[in-house]
Amino acid sequence: xxxxxxxxxxxxxxxxxxxxxxxxxxxxxxxxxxxxxxxxxxxxxxxxxxxxxxxxxxxxxxxxxxxxxxxxxxxxxxxxxxxxxxxxxxxxxxxxxxxxxxxxxxxxxxxxxxxxxxxxxxxxxxxxxxxxxxxxxxxxxxxxxxxxxxxxxxxxxxxxxxxxxxxxxxxxxxxxxxxxxxxxxxxxxxxxxxxxxxxxxxxxxxxxxxxxxxxxxxxxxxxxxxxxxxxxxxxxxxxxxxxxxxxxxxxxxxxxxxxxxxxxxxxxxxxxxxxxxxxxxxxxxxxxxxxxxxxxxxxxxxxxxxxxxxxxxxxxxxxxxxxxxxxxxxxxxxxxxxxxxxxxxxxxxxxxxxxxxxxxxxxxxxxxxxxxxxxxxxxxxxxxxxxxxxxxxxxxxx
Length: 398
Description:
alpha/beta, TIM Barrel, nine-stranded parallel sheet, 13 helices, 9 strands
């Protein structure tokens, strides 16, 4: 039996090539190996992400910027409600009148809804759509007419819609109910390749529509997952969470880069300042190695007391951003040619929830202080976040 089992493992390794034929052969070989072993040694590709790493490398392993002539991007976040509603007019004027030149628009939002009326059966079978942006084609024409670089924001693993529709792709309590965080939101399982393929299918449609960059957000496990995992039921392999998450990013780039679109990822700002965020599965360097743009969310309000020697980081936007960028550069120093464009998210909102004495009202001076810190750290691109899309007027974005 040992000889047969070894032979089957060898057969599996020989069949781990590329293409549909190889995929089918892998599945067959995996079935034989698992049968011989009397247990699941190799997970089926269709269900679980990851598997045996053969060490083989293809042309897709070499990262290439598909948009090398893109100007330096300075953009804003735009909800689907704004993009498809009355607020869009004022946002267009903001970009027409300033150095801002890009919009990051929700195409799959924080609830998991596709934000325009897609007619693609594959997407509707797995997810669900809303008519927040009623005419996506007209929107793309408008962006083009205003010389706006369009970025599609896709929220990946935070997906209440998919979790409810297919609970087996989520995290379940022992009684079979879907796990929710304190805000009533559910996540889907990064170990499940169906989840990968669904989000990449959304991205491919966004590329077809005309978006030049796909920005993935919530590319992680839920916050505090390391303390919850033992009590939840979900499919997994022996792969570490950081490898699963970075594996998704690599797979996404390989799928999307040939379509001529950039891939970017939003990541917690503090991930650049710690060795690895094991709990949520974010490794700053591993993710950066497979994206064209990395966007650390370095909002001063999101750092606690003591970061960058600041008692209240929200009160020190210049010092906080500068400290975050020092750590970001240091973290990526060893990546060489794989180093992506660093395009941070910065704060254009007031964090009143921090409580009296721990926050201040953010306006022109505070936004410009952050931009000044970026410029001094040789960071030429940035994105502004305001959840309601109410951006500070008269800011010098140069």
